[in-house]
Sequence to fold (377 residues):
Amino acid sequence: MDFHLSDEQRALSNTLARFFAERLPLERRLALAATAPGYSVEAWRQVAELGALGALFPEVLGGYGGTPADILAVFEPLGAAAVAGPFLPSLICGLLLGATSTDGADHLLNEIIAGDAVVTLAHQEPGSRYELSQVSARAERVGDGWSISGAKAHVPWGEAADHFIVSARSAGADADEAGLTLFVVPAGAPGLSLRGYLGVDGSRWAELSLDNVDVHDDQRLGGADTGFRLLESAVAAGVLAICADALGALGVVRDSTVEYLRTRVQFGQPIGAFQALQHRMATLLVEIEQARSAVINAAAAFDDDRRERERAIAAAKYTVGRVATLVAEEAVQLHGGIGMTWELPLSHSVKRLMMLDHLFGDVDHHIERYIQLGRAA
Fold:
């Protein structure tokens, strides 16, 4: 399959890689992660000025890209540099806002693209695992608006958010696809509280509590009870971005491990000269290319019908997760005792890969989803 980035996409990707290397070295990223918001707001706005956020959305939504290739061009250098920031929720929430085409949603999306607003997704709940339809938070009609109550877990960059897109059940049972409604809730709304915490990879997350949070009907995204399909489509783009991020991190782990095998001397020669280690490294190189092929296949299938899109996305997320675990474990072993030390950049890429595997479904979830989608054909 021929899947090459355009000259403009390569230029953006290279520009981002240089920017991250110069402005956000590892030491600064680690210092920023210790306290909220967990990333450089100045660098975030500069990245927006470079066009990275606009590249994630088509012209009709105020961007200048929006293709799967644009997502790969932005997120692969993010993963390579292990940069923290609300890139993933900006993509998902921007697509949700763009799918509704109201004046308020359009304005908020323009603020996301300009780097002036942070909007994040509050969807996952305690005990919901990875099922998008598993929502217990309730939205009840109150006059000409809604009242939302419930708890949300693992909300990305919640401490930095200006607005949350909250999923709540307006009808049906907890696991039903029908009956979900999406709302834009401003940070600081009466009845909304959060607790932030640091993730293992240096990202920041929050737990959200909503106690009779009142929202107007014009804060609803799309029709009542019909939010699941909007959410599924936007999350599919998010999973593609996660896979691209992982490819960037895998490239760094690969290159640093190859360099270590070339320079670490044992018994009078570089350890990379030992055939057993060469075989192990060759296996990793083949597996990484397999993961890249799966991501390219998902990008190519992104505009197909829903089932084909979701099946290709599930296959890519499964393959990337499996390969990431293999590569991370082998890289640490090949480095020996220093493989997981804080001072070694490799260890932070490994942690990022482990976290990415669990975002929107791990390998077990996605292989099961792939099988179920195949049976539904």
About this structure: The two ends are 24 Å apart (CA to CA). The CA atoms of residues 68 and 299 lie 5 Å apart. The chain has three domains: 7-117, 120-225, 229-375. The mean pLDDT is 94.
